[in-house]
Specification:
heterodimer; A: alpha/beta; 3-stranded antiparallel sheet; 11% strand; B: 634 residues; alpha+beta; Double Stranded RNA Binding Domain; Uridine Diphospho-n-acetylenolpyruvylglucosamine Reductase, domain 2; Uridine Diphospho-n-acetylenolpyruvylglucosamine Reductase, domain 3; 21 strands; 36% helix; 18% strand; disordered N terminus; glycerol-3-phosphate O-acyltransferase activity (chain A); transferase (chain A)
Chain lengths: 662, 634
């Protein structure tokens, strides 16, 4: 097979430029007020935000749906029309340059205090500029922080690029003042769920399409739908992607450029917040006052941000030989239709490709590797019932080993090469001093321990520890996509009944299938992923393939050990969910009750020492395993109740049990 | 410059007839030694003389006497760059003939990045020895000879009938390359001759390929390379009489080999016209129109070929098919005419057609409208179609074509005219604020009685005004139509300087017109880039016909192929991609060019598997041994 295609090391990436550097050396005010002349779409007919609204309200699409709604509900046409106008009013952005200038000024101040640098690949910016000129553009940033979309607009303003309009969740609107500010900086607001509301959907999709088709502004949204609390990429949501691809599929534009943007934070502002949320401490409702309370974050060092604008992806080339556009020839294009099976799978595949593209260009800091190693060590020591700490030298040695391995796997690793490894390690650790503690040359996770405080229950103590573990895990997770395929192979080799290639493949395929709600695994790419994993392990000398037999080499044991341990928490999580469903789930368990119930089950097991992985307390893991079991048919949903469906579950469970035994 | 007329007298009519002819194609002189070219052998099968004496025939048996063997049209008419580097058009047939076109060089060089220094001249002489010797079916030849029907296996005659005017066909000829050519040419003089030829072909298993005007752009005339039988080209050009005119019913019965300009000229002499004017009408034949479902520029008044045909006679291997009466409409099952129309020579030879005729229009007037942009222009055409008030012809050119048309303005003789032109330009671009790089122009042709034409004109201009259109004079309009006839000659000029190109068409619903225009043009540009074309191509379009439910769109595409090793292949790949784009945007496979062999691959998707089966079963019944073996369509 073509090694160029398989070898991620050969990926070329651009260099970065720190945009804060100039901010530190020149006036923010002048920067905020400077002349801003963006390159625009070549076929743009300039129009005001208000004209845009009337274009939407007068569109054939909307008029058709309004008519339909009238017929169905018996409401008067102007009543429905007024409702549509109100929806649009609630939704629409009011992008104005003055607000952007305000943000340019204030964010400059904020960013300079919070971050050491904001690094942007300028070649990506140039590509984006070209793309904006040529075709309507959709910006698809990864979503790890509230900061993301302001940061995006800030960067585009800095580089004189057209300011985007951004699809934002309605929850922002609760913060009155901030909501309006965001609206004026280009955000438009969508209700979180509007399932059957035809009119809402029509207004929404027409609004987005109108902006896109006319090249009014780049349309920005988050493929993952929401901020990833785990820092793993989330399974992409297809709604908006469907909408932005539609104008191309229906021939209304020649092409649409999709630009994946990878935003990597060295330290995430919401770090502990996310961990608490995953553990069931509810997310505080967004409120303006809450935001001000967050002021204490301003005094901390959050390292640097890397923003990588990826290669624009042409929807036209994605659809080439994939979609038969003639299918839209026989029904007027303004009549809404549910996308057919082929369109759905096309959009789905594209979405995965784009999320993969985001992942590939995520910059990894040494800390990500350290977090992986520390977590593995913590767990190994825990199992061995030893002190869960590690010598700094040993950590450095392992980190260097892992650095080299991850580079061979194509990681976009920013390891400071001008300093010694031990310096690199200790400076990384010091940035995350809330998560690790160093004393006498030994490192351990920063648990509050040894204080016999009667007010803290064992359960509370466990949850406090879990906050640290899940925070660390969120950094480890950033590297998961690098190791995922080899790790699946390593686990497959570990569990397969023989080392025969076909056996291993079957086992790989099972694991991959099971974890496809957990990780970004492109649908239908099992063989490709398997080959890539084989290629990487063979290339790095960890594995040999002799006559369809896999042989792990001497030095390969270390690699495979590391890789299997990488997946362990996930396997444990799925297993515990299976066990819960088999042993503990009562009749009539609703989906809503599932997470609290399984959490209770896990806490009980951990406290009684029957379970060791604190990480499985993550509700994300629990929900994903339930989704996987539902998808695999091991569990069934009946009228909203979750029920175990034998014998699939038992097969699944047996397998997981075997795995544990081995 | 409208042809004006106050009355409707017959002398007036003839005057108008003369004017029209000179406008459309120019008077064609009979070849100097026409006697040898035209065999006035009367068809013995006909009991009576033809009603209308057809003395002046345009097309001789030996076409090479007046036409180019490796390019478009008459040998005496061609563009070239003179020593001063100015473009000139030779001959005396067209309005542009003998004139200098000062703007063409700059347009040509700047549009294509071409240079007069870089020439790619064609092989000057047809080298007969490079033509494959004919494979003759001796028994067939013997029997045919005994009928007295003229025939030839001369290499030149055969090469002339082995191609249409697709780019790859002409390109190969210019390089002196000949593929499979017919082994023999026959020239039937009448229906009964055709009956005999077809009978003999069936008897001796010979492959027949009907040939009319040779203007096909669908590879329809290409001999299938896999054909092992002797291939006989059946040239209908000598079946060119108007057999009768029925003034009571306004019909004319015409032999199918007549070419468009002769048909109109001869009918005009009696004060009538068919009004069917495809762009190729100088050379294309009535039978060809029927066989490809042709469309005429003035279909808004007269209809397309399917609206004009009242009765058709076709000779097939199973015998002659024709209807028993000339009723204007029938409910007798599926219309068998529709098996004939569009059959592209796969079922038989159309020999005679009864066509509707109309009294010649009293008054004609050209016109043009400038729109600020193409979008507005299309919106105007759509409104005109909605109100069903389209003039005889209405065409909308995009900005590139507008500029192209501009570059083809002949040298103006007076300072006054050039001053006026300058003034007009100033008015439109400066005073009215039209962007010269966005504006586009619609050309109009009105026909009818004077008062109605003027009324109609006002209606159309009023609509245009609602879409920002400004009347831009008759002259611009007329030049637009003139261009239609010379554009094919221009391709030959381009090919002398590394520039190749072609046009293709489609029909599309109204709501898709803008999208298809934009997307196909953009696709062409992108494909050229992807395929390594070094220069940016000319990619332009026009809307040439309006219908109730949609429009006909024409694309023109040309590029400079310097630096490419296989330019024709690149060209074909781009055209293929453009057609895919057309289909993906809701356009049809063809509006009037037909399918031939060039577009066969899309037929199944176009008419469905069942549709294909229906057509195949007709073919299987009518021509089980594939005597009409040009392999078009299916």
């Amino acid at each position: 097979s073509d090694s160029k295609y398989l070898d991620p090391m050969l990926k070329k990436r651009d260099d970065f430029e720190d945009i804060l550097e100039e901010r530190r050396n020149s006036s923010d005010l002048r920067y905020a007020l400077r002349c801003y002349i963006p390159v625009l779409y070549k076929e743009l007919t300039p129009c005001k935000a208000s004209e845009l609204k009337s274009m939407v309200l007068q569109s054939d699409q909307l008029r058709y749906v309004i008519n339909q709604v009238c017929k169905e509900t018996g409401m008067a046409a102007d009543e429905v029309q007024a409702e549509a106008a109100a929806i649009l009013e609630e939704m629409a952005h009011r992008l104005q340059l003055s607000t952007i200038r305000f943000f340019a000024f204030t964010l400059s101040k904020v960013f300079k205090t919070l971050f050491r640098s904001i690094c942007v690949n300028e070649e990506g910016i140039q590509r984006l500029q070209q793309a904006i000129h040529e075709h309507p553009v959709v910006l698809l940033p990864s979503h790890r922080s509230y900061m993301d979309f302001l940061l995006m607009s800030y960067i585009l303003y800095t580089y004189d690029l057209a300011l985007p309009v951004i699809a934002a969740g309605m929850d922002f609107m609760a913060m009155k003042f901030v909501g309006e500010m965001l609206r004026m900086s280009g955000a438009f607001f969508i209700r979180r769920s509007f399932g059957g509301d035809k009119l809402y959907w029509a207004v929404f999709s027409e609004y987005v399409k109108t902006m896109l088709k006319n090249g009014f502004a780049p349309v920005e949204f988050f493929l993952e739908g929401t901020r990833s609390r785990t820092c793993k990429s989330l399974t992409p949501k297809l709604g908006l992607l469907n909408i932005v691809m539609d104008p191309f599929l229906k021939g209304e534009v020649f092409d649409v450029s999709l630009v994946p943007v990878s935003i990597s934070y060295e330290r995430i502002l919401e770090e502990a917040l996310y961990a608490r949320e995953l553990l069931g401490v509810p997310k505080p409702k967004e409120s303006t006052s809450g935001l001000f309370k967050a002021r204490k974050v301003l005094s901390e060092d959050y390292g640097s941000i890397h923003v990588y604008f990826g290669q624009p992806v042409s929807v036209r080339s994605l659809a080439q030989n994939r979609v038969d556009r003639c299918q839209f020839n026989l029904i007027p294009r303004h009549i809404p239709r549910k996308p057919g099976e082929d369109i759905h799978s096309f959009v789905n595949d594209s979405a995965y490709r784009l999320v993969r593209a985001q992942e590939e260009n995520m910059v990894l800091k040494p800390w990500v590797l350290l977090a992986s190693l520390l977590l593995q060590n913590h767990h190994q020591m825990q199992v061995a019932e030893q002190k869960q700490e590690m010598a700094l030298d040993e950590l450095t040695e392992q980190a260097v080993w892992l650095r080299d391995l991850s580079r061979q796997y194509g990681a976009f690793l920013h390891w400071p090469d001008h300093v010694s490894p031990s310096e690199a390690v200790s400076s990384s650790l010091s940035l995350h001093r809330g998560l690790v503690r160093i004393s006498e040359g030994r490192v351990q996770l920063a648990f509050e321990q040894g204080e016999p405080c009667s007010t803290v229950t064992p359960e509370e103590e466990l949850l406090n520890q879990a906050v640290i573990i899940l925070s660390c895990a969120s950094y480890r997770n950033q590297a998961l996509h690098i190791f995922l395929r080899p790790a699946l192979l390593a686990s497959a080799i570990h569990t397969a009944s023989s080392s025969n290639k076909q056996e291993v493949y079957n086992s790989f395929s099972f694991l991959r299938n099971m974890f496809s709600n957990e990780f970004i695994l492109c649908p239908g790419a099992t063989v490709q992923d398997f080959e890539e994993a084989c290629y990487l392990l063979v290339k790095t000398g960890a594995l040999q393939i002799n006559q369809q037999e896999f042989v792990v080499t001497e030095r390969g044991h270390r690699t495979l050990g590391f890789l299997t341990r990488m997946l362990d928490p996930f396997l444990q999580g799925y297993q515990v969910v299976c066990r819960f469903l088999c042993e503990d789930a009562t009749e009539g368990l609703t989906e809503k009750q599932f997470v609290p119930a399984v959490r209770k089950f896990i806490i009980r097991h951990i406290l009684t020492g029957r379970l060791r992985y604190t990480e499985v307390l993550s509700s994300d893991l629990q929900k994903n395993s339930l989704a996987a079991l539902l998808r695999l048919g091991a569990v069934q949903k009946l009228k909203g109740y979750v029920g175990v469906c034998h014998p699939c579950t038992s097969v699944c469970f047996d397998w997981l049990r075997q795995k544990q035994a081995s | 410059m409208a042809s004006n007329s106050s009355g409707g007298g017959s002398s007036d009519r003839q005057r108008i007839a003369r004017q029209r002819l000179s406008r459309i194609a120019g008077h064609l002189q009979r070849p100097a030694d026409g006697s040898s070219a035209i065999v006035a052998a009367e068809c013995k099968a006909h009991g009576s003389q033809a009603d209308v004496p057809g003395e002046e025939k345009t097309v001789p048996r030996r076409r090479q006497e007046i036409m180019k063997w490796n390019g478009w049209g008459y040998s005496d008419s061609r563009f070239f760059f003179n020593k001063k580097g100015q473009a000139e058009f030779t001959g005396r047939r067209y309005r542009l003939s003998g004139l200098i076109i000062p703007g063409l060089k700059d347009w040509f060089e700047s549009t294509f990045g071409a240079s007069l220094q870089h020439k790619t001249p064609a092989t000057p002489i047809l080298n007969s020895s490079a033509v494959q010797p004919p494979t003759l079916n001796e028994a067939f030849v013997e029997e045919l000879k005994s009928t007295g029907i003229p025939l030839s296996h001369d290499a030149e005659d055969r090469v002339f009938r082995a191609h249409g005017h697709c780019l790859h066909e002409i390109f190969a000829l210019r390089e002196g390359k000949f593929g499979r050519v017919p082994d023999m040419v026959v020239w039937p003089n009448c229906h009964n001759d055709v009956v005999k030829i077809v009978e003999l072909a069936c008897k001796h298993n010979v492959c027949l390929i009907p040939y009319g005007g040779g203007t096909s752009v669908s590879s329809a005339l290409e001999c299938p390379p896999e054909e092992t039988r002797s291939i006989v080209s059946l040239d209908t050009s000598q079946m060119n009489r108007i057999l009768w005119i029925d003034e009571k019913n306004l019909t004319a019965h015409v032999e199918a080999g007549i070419v468009g300009q002769d048909l109109e000229r001869l009918l005009n002499e009696s004060g009538y016209c068919t009004g069917h004017e495809p762009d190729s009408m100088e050379f294309s034949s009535l039978g060809g129109w029927v066989a490809t479902r042709a469309s005429g520029m003035k279909k808004n008044v007269y209809g397309n070929i399917e609206d004009l045909v009242v009765h058709v006679k076709m000779v097939t291997p199973q015998g002659v098919i024709e209807k028993s009466c000339q009723g204007p409409r029938m409910s007798t099952g599926p219309d068998v005419h529709h098996f004939i129309m569009g059959s592209e020579g796969t079922l038989g030879v159309v020999t005679e057609v009864t066509m509707k005729i109309r009294p010649m229009p009293e008054y004609q007037k050209y016109g043009s409208v400038v729109f600020p942009n193409f979008e507005q222009g299309v919106a105007c055409l759509r409104e005109v179609a909605r109100q069903r008030c389209a003039p005889a012809s209405i065409r909308l050119m995009d900005n590139e074509q507008f500029k192209f048309g501009h570059a083809l303005k002949p040298q103006v003789s007076s300072i006054f005219t050039s001053f006026l032109d300058g003034l007009k330009k100033f008015y439109i671009t400066k005073f009215k604020g039209f962007d010269p790089n966005r504006l586009c122009v619609a050309t109009l042709l009105f026909e009818g009685d004077r008062e109605k034409v003027l009324q109609h004109e006002k209606q159309v201009y009023d609509i245009a005004a609602k879409f920002g259109g400004l009347a831009a004079g008759e002259d611009n309009g007329q030049r637009g139509y003139m261009l239609t006839f010379v554009i094919a000659y221009l391709r030959d000029l381009g090919m002398d300087y590394y520039v190749i190109g072609e046009s293709f068409e489609t029909s599309v619903p109204w709501d898709r017109v803008l999208d298809i225009c934009r997307n196909v043009k953009a696709r062409i540009i992108r494909e050229c880039k992807d395929k390594g074309v070094q220069f940016s191509p000319l990619s332009t379009c026009r809307v040439t016909q309006t219908y109730d439910a949609g429009a006909c769109v024409y694309f023109y595409f040309a590029f400079n192929y310097r630096g490419l090793s296989d330019p024709v292949h690149v060209y074909e790949q781009v055209e293929h991609a453009a057609r895919e784009e057309i289909l993906a945007n809701g356009g049809s496979l063809s509006h009037h060019h037909g399918v031939g062999k060039l577009r066969k691959e899309w037929m199944r998707d176009t008419i469905s598997k069942v549709g294909m089966g229906m057509l195949k079963s007709v073919k299987d019944y009518v021509d089980p041994n594939n005597i009409f073996g040009n392999r078009n369509l299916l």
